[in-house]
Amino acid sequence: MKDYELTITKFLQRAVDLFSHKEIVSKLSDGSLHRYTYADAYERICQLAHALDDYGLELGDRVSVMAVNHYRHYELYFGPSCSGRSIHTTNHRLPEHHLTEIINEAEDRLLFVDPAFVETAEAVADDLETVEQYVVLDDEVPETSLDPVVDYESFIAGYDTEYDWPELDEEREFALCYTSGTTGLPKGVQYRHRRMFLHTLVHGHVDVFGVSENDTVMPVVPMFHVNGWGFPYSGTFYGSKLVLPGQHTSPEAVADLIAAEDVTVAAAVPTVWIDMDSYLESSESEPLESLDRVLTGGSAPPASLMQKFEEVYEAPIYQGYGMTEASPHLANTFETTQMQDLPDEEGYELKRKAGIPAPGAQIRLRTQDGEPVPHDGDTPGEIHARSPWLTDGYFKRPEANESSFEDGWFKTGDIGTIDEYGYLDIVDRIDDAIKSGGEWISSVELEISLIDADGVGEAAVIAAPHEKWQERPVAFVVTEDDSIDEASLREHLLETFPKWWLPDVFRFVDEIPKTTTQKFNKKDLRDQFIEEEGELPLEQ
Amino acid sequence: MKDYELTITKFLQRAVDLFSHKEIVSKLSDGSLHRYTYADAYERICQLAHALDDYGLELGDRVSVMAVNHYRHYELYFGPSCSGRSIHTTNHRLPEHHLTEIINEAEDRLLFVDPAFVETAEAVADDLETVEQYVVLDDEVPETSLDPVVDYESFIAGYDTEYDWPELDEEREFALCYTSGTTGLPKGVQYRHRRMFLHTLVHGHVDVFGVSENDTVMPVVPMFHVNGWGFPYSGTFYGSKLVLPGQHTSPEAVADLIAAEDVTVAAAVPTVWIDMDSYLESSESEPLESLDRVLTGGSAPPASLMQKFEEVYEAPIYQGYGMTEASPHLANTFETTQMQDLPDEEGYELKRKAGIPAPGAQIRLRTQDGEPVPHDGDTPGEIHARSPWLTDGYFKRPEANESSFEDGWFKTGDIGTIDEYGYLDIVDRIDDAIKSGGEWISSVELEISLIDADGVGEAAVIAAPHEKWQERPVAFVVTEDDSIDEASLREHLLETFPKWWLPDVFRFVDEIPKTTTQKFNKKDLRDQFIEEEGELPLEQ
Contact, A503 vs A461, CB < 8 A? Predict the structure, then answer.
């Protein structure tokens, strides 16, 4: 044992020692607000830990949680982990066979489930080999075939509201989360106390997200999705007021909650902010007045949206770049000295990028052959990452570890460029990039440009097999305007790209299929295109 | 070896990867400014590491440095440490026999010395048992008896400007610093890579010092004094422009440098800011325009000074509480949500305190018998501290470790109170507190009140032995005004304190003796008083 182990128990202790009076507010399924303090939460977390002891859960055992963002989910972030167990957060939108596989692989012994997801749990329950007990996150058990089942309030009721937290080894797992890859089975990432301690320290940085005691933090991003990007932990460590929106993530609901609770920091994927902009355009009110900054990630928001949030709503968008394997944070945008001297347009061009590696994170670019790529802002390479909070390997996947790690660096599968000042730009996924005649064409850059064209709603670009060039781009476009045709789009793209980058085929569709995490499902698109068209011929 | 060791080498690599164009500016002994970039510094740090290899310095060996703040001292912060050696920073103002003892105890093999301190080195050289080589921090060697001796530029000249830094164990010592206790021999504190990594992560926090790439950071505090409070490290990790003032620490020189280099953050002990205020009062210029915040520590600044810096100079003072053993940071003031709602006067009353423990640091209060003390803002107790960057024990002092550590907590020897919101207030040193009839009288509180009286320049209060009460306070006062007498001071103190707190004796003196770190030398005062007066009689 070290003289000070870096464990997430320290977050909880700091909150209750220094900020016990600060609030955690949850919007419940019936739309009502539940509010209590860190002191209240702490007592129930202690009760939960005692209940797990009493149940017979051993050190290192795991529990599943299938829930949206609310105070009981928050309690589950600490009760199991701080008492030496691990919480496996599951995405209820996964295909059923994925859910079954990951819960069985994780050997979860209890499953905590929101009333709204009881049906999902019922659908997989027969195939769950290790789950012994279901706990419904409510004060009563609904009509259900789950068995044995108990409600959460009864589960923790009557236990002592103090707990003697064990000194845990900082390399102990405190949580497990699976990547929702678009190809193949999800892969588990074990989160370890030390790594989340360091990840959380970085969240408080003025050049990262600057999470502060002064903030009211609302993770709209689901708590089952990569530690809710870490905000439930950093909010706790820094004593921020926390606002948990439950399933109420529509623009109107998010805007109302921001206004009602004076939220200063809200974190969500770009689509939430795109929809928010549309909503605000049609609304008379100014609900974002308290909002100081917007944190987003997962994919790059349009530069126009970033400018609008900064200049009109006065809540600048900060980009984060990360991934499940990295807890998730690796890099982020912030206004550097250099940017302050740039004209607006160039400044937004930099802010649109993935940003600067966070303190402790390191990024390098490599060719497919493993050679270094120059940091010229132009030459793309695969992004390799290191950081003291990045995973040390996938759970029970030695073959994936073999291919994903090299000299202590994690091969992210993302393709990027780095400019002379260290700004990282994500150009593509290796899986999505189009290898045309030995060169890479970025499907992402084509998509961004297509969406920028007037009258285009959505656009996805895939790699179609080609008999000469190996692969060529094919575009799927959702239009909002009948005047859009292939000729006008080709003309639009030619303003930015060389002729050989232009898609060989444009398909106009009503919608683009999405994955459970609302990314374009390019795998489905590609499979379907190949089934229908086969290999593209030479003369296209 | 871990997959990512928390070493200070990461600071250097980040600076050169991302902020290579940012500047380090040093004011040299002749008053001229030396400026170069992190890229330039990096090349010379690599050369220095090669020079140490070539010299035959082994992993773990130590070098002494006796220097003020400038770029060569900065290079010595990284070259030895990142190549696996350790830098022992020495305070040239120590008594000669202390210097000899600590350099011998540390077994330093090289001694790097400023030309200005060559005489000091010469005075002790005959007694240094392990120093083999002197290196003068200049481009030529002055007339000196030091032998063998070489100038720094010749020492590093010609070596490769790249270096393959070793992967070091994060618990390896990178620096050694001795406490300058007012009683007894200095005790050495070994700083370890992991601990400074964590200390530095906390420096970037918006609720701590918020060190940012946007900042221009000037440590006025000497770099031989507890890692320059950590600013040379945090400035590097976050890519701040660094300004090193050399020996030019007069109010006028500091003000000029702030203005010339657009310094945003300056760190120095309170006396610097007290003198700065007097200087600015008599000056026509407004040199602090760029200054965003002032960091201070070591002793509490007067509330009136804090208010003036915030409201007149628009550079609020943030208090830090720490010590050599803690690298040094433990707690700091910041504007919490609660303070925003308080009237000005109460707000400044909180800002004057030592503040809130930094994320990861923990503070508790204990009675002399080891019993918990309530957090009521009123009851004093000894401050015990834990943090992941606090030392794990004194260097070669098993008996001091025995008495200074308890259950993993460090007994600071400071007496404090903690209020219900966790604000720590330093009331006294255990050594300085006056034990009168079983109660503690705070010498520090009496001093603060005396200084607040019109016409009082300095005031020190000591504990004099008393035949009945065990100890009683005696005040030494420097007046700026002939109208001040004992009666007026007693009247002034009675506005705040009970009668039994008032000093039994007031002595009006021309000056108060100071230690080498500019603290009141209460030990000398006390020894002299006892020699002259003996035990105080009953009727006083």
Answer: yes
**Residue A300 binned pLDDT confidence (cut-offs 50, 70, 90):** confident
Q: Write out pLDDT tens, residues B174-220.
A: 999 998 654 457 899 999 999 999 999 999 999 999 999 999 999 99
Interface of B with A in 17-36 (CB under 8 A): 17-19, 21-22
**Residue count of chain A:** 540
CB within 8 Å: A206 and B212: yes
For the domain with range A360-429, which CATH number is right: 3.90.550.10, 2.30.38.10, 3.40.50.300, 3.30.930.10? 2.30.38.10
Stretch B420-449: mean pLDDT: 79
pLDDT-derived band at A540, boundaries 50, 70, 90: very low
The CB density around residue B322, as the number of other CB atoms within 10 Å, is 26
| CATH class of segment(s) B357-429 | mainly beta
pTM above 0.90, yes or no: no
**Ramachandran quadrant class, A170 (left: phi over 0; alpha: psi -120 to 50; beta: rest):** alpha
Q: Chain centroid to CA A189: how far?
A: 14
- CA–CA dist A146, A113 (Å, integer): 11
Q: How far apart are CA A46 and CA A164, in angstroms?
A: 9
- Interior CA angle at A459 toward A455 and A465, to 5°? 140
Asked if residue B124 lies in contact with residue B97, where contact means CB atoms within 8 angstroms, the answer is no
**Residue whose token pair is 């100014």:** A286
Closest chain B C-alpha to A497 CA, distance in angstroms: 29
Res. B440 pLDDT band, cuts 50 70 90: low
Strand B216-219 relative to strand B424-429, pairing: unpaired
CB atoms B213 and A207 under 8 Å: yes
> Under an 8 A CB cutoff, do B207 and A202 touch?
no
Q: Which helix (H) or strand (E) holds B306?
A: helix B303-311
Q: How far apart are CA B399 and CA B420, in angstroms?
A: 35
Query: pLDDT tens, B455-503?
Result: 898 899 998 888 777 788 999 999 988 888 999 999 999 988 878 889 9
Q: Quick one: closest CA in B to A214, which residue?
A: B337
Q: What is the pLDDT of residues A508-538, one digit of tens each?
A: 999 898 877 777 888 888 888 888 888 777 6
For A9-248, which CATH class?
A: alpha beta
Subunit contact A422:B210, Cβ cutoff 8 A: no
Q: How many angstroms separate the Cα of A440 from the Cα of each of A292, A424, A436?
A: 39, 18, 6
**How many Å lie between the alpha carbon of A172 and the closest alpha carbon of chain B?**
14
Architecture field, domain B434-533: 2-Layer Sandwich (3.30)
d(C-alpha A539, C-alpha A129), whole Å: 55
